[in-house]
Amino acid sequence: MAAPRLNSSDIKSMKGPGKVVCLTAYDTPMAKRVDQHCDLILVGDSLAMVVYGLETTRGVTLDIMIAHGQAVMRGSERACVVVDLPHGTYEQNPPQAVASALRVVAETGCQAVKLEGGEEMAETVAAIVNAGVPVLGHIGLLPQKAESRGGFKIQGKDDEGAHQVYKDAAAIEKAGAFAMVIEGTVEAVAREVTARSAIPLIGIGASPACDGQILVTQDMVGLFADFTPKFVKRYADAGKLIEQAVADYAAEVRSGDFPGLEHCFGVPKKD
Ligand code: KIV
Question: How many domains are there within the chain?
Answer without folding.
Answer: 2
